[in-house]
Amino acid sequence: MNWFKTLFGSRPILSSEEQQVLSDWRLTPRVEAASQLGSSRFVVVDVEASGLNLSLDRLIAIGAVAISEGRIDFDDSFEVVLQQTQSSSHENILIHGIGGQEQKRGVPPRKALLDFLRYLGKSPLVAFHVTFDETMLRNAIRQYLGFRLRHEWLDLAYVMPGLYPELANEYRTLEQWQARFGIQNHARHNAVSDALSTAQLFMVAARKAQRKRLETYQNLQQLEKAQRWVSWQQ
């Protein structure tokens, strides 16, 4: 047995139309990390999955909201439920509210992921606790589209304490930071609702960053890197 297939599975075969969508996406101009926070498009993303195991659990839903030219663009959003051959557990459904029948009637995963890439373009991504969202998306894209997603990400879980060091010990979770700045989320664990409330937190971060003369996405990535180092030392 081929050891590569054993470790990674066989490469999916895409139709000519699917290959064209992927080719068009690859040719999309890259948005530079040095772009100004107030003049570029960024995409805030949140995902729902069948559990928290990064290796074994499956991607169920993607929600995303764009920030363009310094404002949340409510008309530029994305939401999809990926079709599941087997619905997730009852306990898991109670968390995200996507029922078994809705999961089985979802969009075929390959189409759902291509639709997401077409929506995303090459806009940099933003999330809170990036590791989960990035890993779930990367695993699904590798499984269904056959390539490794390499994209710019920014993690607000480190950016916020970096911008507000006086609050870092008291505020740690997404809910705590949102409550601190009066951000409400009436549909917690709904992917697009979570993305929207995270986008509002990103706007708080961007305004604070600009007051500190941190005016680009890259500046915030550097702040995140520094804050990760501080966290590891504690």
Question: What order do the helices and strands come in, and which of them pair?
Answer:
Layout lengths: L2 H6 L7 H11 L14 E9 L9 E10 L2 E11 L8 H7 L3 H5 L4 H12 L4 E3 L2 H16 L7 E3 H8 L10 H7 L10 H21 L5 H17 L1
Parallel strand pairs: 1-4, 4-5
Antiparallel strand pairs: 1-2, 2-3
Helix pairs in contact: 2-5, 5-6, 7-9, 7-10
Low-confidence stretches: 1-8
Count up the helices.
10
Q: Kindly name the structural category.
A: alpha/beta
Q: H/E order of the elements?
A: HHEEEHHHEHEHHHH
- The gross shape turns out to be globular
State the share of residues found in helices, binned by percent: 40-55%
Radius of gyration: 18 Å
Question: What average pLDDT do the residues reach?
Answer: 91
Intertermini distance: 46 Å
State the major sheet: 5 strands, mixed
Estimate what percentage of residues fall within beta strands: 15-25%
Strand order of the largest sheet: 3-2-1-4-5
